[in-house]
Design goal:
- The complex is a heterodimer.
- By secondary structure, chain A is mainly α.
- Chain A folds into 2 domains: 69 residues, no CATH class; 212 residues, MetI-like (MetI-like fold, Orthogonal Bundle), CATH 1.10.3720.10.
- In chain A, 76% of the residues lie in helices and 0% in strands.
- Chain B is mainly alpha-helical.
- Chain B has one domain: MetI-like (MetI-like fold), CATH 1.10.3720.
- Chain B is 74% helix and 1% strand.
- Chain B has 16 helices and 2 strands.
- Chain B starts with a helix and ends with a helix.
- The model of chain B has no long low-confidence stretch (mean pLDDT 90).
- Classes of the chains: A mainly alpha, B mainly alpha.
- At the A-B interface, helix 1, helix 2, helix 4, helix 5 and helix 6 of A face helix 2, helix 5, helix 6, helix 7 and helix 8 of B.
Chain lengths: 285, 295
């Protein structure tokens, strides 16, 4: 009897050890590319062109030179960086406001055509932007708003997945809350701005992070829309540094590495909201 | 009068929905309709050409190659990015594992990087130089270095690895969220009845994870079929040798933007849309979403 119990415990310990090894191994594999570019940010660009990206450490060659170039050199990096920050902040604020407005409409009211309209939201959810991007691109140039941040953001302010999330979030809302507002003499819009918006804070946080991440990392649509280099976002700008001559590799690598930093800091501070935002659609199906 | 109308409880819902309605009409219905119209035109010469673009598509070997690559990539991501993350999530969720949160956070880090940065890293890791990381690994395994991004299968491998690197952590999160909505009592009861870990996984976790699995499968299908930026970045915006990295959207981009054959590119886009809508309808029927919303 005792022997059997011991055996079982030994087996459990073995399983535990195996799992720890598995997950640590996976973590190492996943961190290797990040570690490689972190190392490379200290290596001269010429070394990358000559040897490629690897995990070699050669203290004689490595220096803070790239960082000095990034912070004090003459280039457009910081302009791209602040363009991206501006665009991300503006997009997030407007998207949240517009999408919450719509999401509330879907959650709080019963009206004619509601179901069919909601099916439209679901349909958009499933159409990748890539399918409509060319006609949309043509339309933007016909509207004469090409090469502007308006063209990047406007088509996606009423953002289907964000609307869906807000709608789900507000579905559980007691209708008596709205009635109470009405009795107090608030208008329908007053109810939204004074009563609903304040209680949506956690939902806003989750969606702010998700939309912010998407906007910061957005590439394909800005690539089509933006023409002039002074309007480049960080992703567009970084890509222009990737050319076969390698004369910009100093900045490319350190700049790429540094572009992860703001998102990473947000992630460390607001991890819960990242996870909530990412997994919002999955559980409810 | 107007004010009363605007503030009435009957009209208010439509005001709330209006931004979506406008977006839907202006940025989805209009472009899709335009896309349909454009696909029957030669846009550069500004004339109608009937079904010529579609006829050309049917005999375009490069287009079929692109479809093949997209479908292969999609299947690859389904095979790698559903079962493994599900298993990892179950293991991390079991009481045996210490600090599951830390591991989940680490696995999530790649999702924070943009495709551009991820593409730059993988392009350089899979460089043709003998001392680039991928070739170093090959050398360690006793093989000789190769030109990764020139071969059909090796570049497929690089693309898949890039995708797995970015999405394993996210899918683990999806499945963890699904697992946490399953009551722990079920596992406890099964455990008392003598079910081992594997039985608990196949009999409880797997069936109850169905909604999550359907969701992850769906987004993987869409993302897989419309993949473009990853391959665009791996080959630094240029055509890959022998089109080894060409996807449907890549072909759409090449025709529409680089060759300015907008009509032909729109035909490509519509084929993709039809494939996706087809999958979408099957998925909605299987999922019973139509019934759920009409309730």
């Amino acid at each position: 009897m005792n022997n059997n119990k011991n055996k079982k415990r030994r087996k459990q310990q073995l399983v535990k050890a195996g799992m720890v090894i598995l997950f640590i191994g996976l973590a190492v594999l996943i961190l290797i590319p990040i570690y490689a570019i972190f190392l490379a940010s200290f290596k001269p660009g010429g070394m990358l062109v000559q040897y490629g990206l690897n995990l070699d450490i050669d203290f004689k060659q490595m220096s803070l030179n790239n960082y000095i170039v990034m912070f004090f050199g003459k280039h457009e990096y910081w302009r791209w960086f602040f363009n991206s920050i501006f665009l991300t902040v503006a997009t997030v604020i407007l998207t949240l406001l517009v999408s919450a407005f719509v999401g509330y409409g879907f959650a709080a009211y019963d009206f004619k055509g509601k179901n069919i309209l909601f099916v439209c939201v679901l349909i958009i959810l499933s159409i990748p932007l890539e399918v409509v991007m060319l006609p949309l691109y043509k339309q933007m140039s016909e509207w004469k708003i090409m090469n502007s941040y308006t063209a990047i953001a406007l088509p996606f302010l009423a953002h289907a997945s964000t609307i869906f999330f807000f709608r789900q979030y507000l579905m559980g809302l007691p209708k008596s809350l709205l009635e109470a507002g009405r009795i107090d003499g608030a208008t329908e819009y007053g109810i939204f701005f004074r009563i609903i918006v304040p209680i949506m804070k956690p939902a806003f946080a989750a969606m702010a992070i998700l939309n912010g991440m998407n906007s910061w990392n957005n590439y394909l649509w800005p690539l089509l829309v933006i023409r002039s280099s002074e309007k480049y976002t960080l992703t567009l700008g970084l890509n222009t540094l990737l050319n076969p001559y390698g004369n910009n590799y100093d900045l490319l690598i350190v700049g790429s590495f540094f572009s992860i930093v703001p998102i990473f800091i947000l992630f460390v501070c607001f991890q819960r909201y990242f996870i909530e935002g990412m997994t919002a659609g999955a559980v409810k199906g | 009068m107007f004010k009363k109308f605007f503030y009435s409880q009957k009209i208010a819902p439509y005001v709330f929905i209006l931004p979506f309605l406008l977006t839907f009409l202006c940025f989805w219905i209009v472009p899709i309709s335009n896309g349909v119209l454009l696909s029957f035109q030669d846009v550069l010469k500004d004339k109608w050409v009937g079904a010529k673009n579609y006829q050309r598509l049917l005999t375009d070997k490069i287009f079929f190659k692109a479809i093949f690559h997209s479908v292969r990539y999609m299947i690859g991501t389904l095979v790698l990015l559903i079962p493994f993350p599900m298993l990892f999530a179950s293991l991390l969720n079991s009481k045996l594992m210490k600090k599951p949160g830390l591991f989940k956070s680490i696995y999530f880090i790649p999702a924070l990087t943009s495709v551009v940065v991820a593409g730059i890293i993988f392009r350089l890791m899979f460089g043709e130089l003998d001392s680039s990381l991928a070739n170093r690994v090959l050398t360690l395994l006793g093989e000789s270095p190769i030109k990764w991004l020139h071969g059909e299968l090796t570049s497929f491998f690089a693309l898949l690895l890039l995708c797995c690197w970015r999405w394993t952590g996210v899918n683990i999160l999806y499945f963890t969220a699904g697992l946490q909505s399953i009551s722990t009592e079920l596992f406890e009861a099964a455990s008392i009845d003598g079910a081992n870990a594997w039985q608990q996984f196949t009999r409880i976790s797997f069936p109850l994870l169905k909604p999550t699995t359907i969701y992850v499968v769906t987004i993987s299908i869409y993302a897989g079929l419309s993949m473009f930026t990853e391959s665009y970045m791996l080959w630094a915006g240029k055509n890959s040798p022998n089109n080894v990295g060409l996807t449907i959207v890549g072909y759409l981009y090449r025709q529409g933007i680089e060759k300015r054959a907008l009509g032909y590119a729109c035909a490509v886009g519509l084929v993709l849309l039809i494939i996706i809508m087809f999958i979408n309808i099957i998925q909605l029927i299987l999922n019973g979403t139509f019934k759920k919303e009409e309730r």
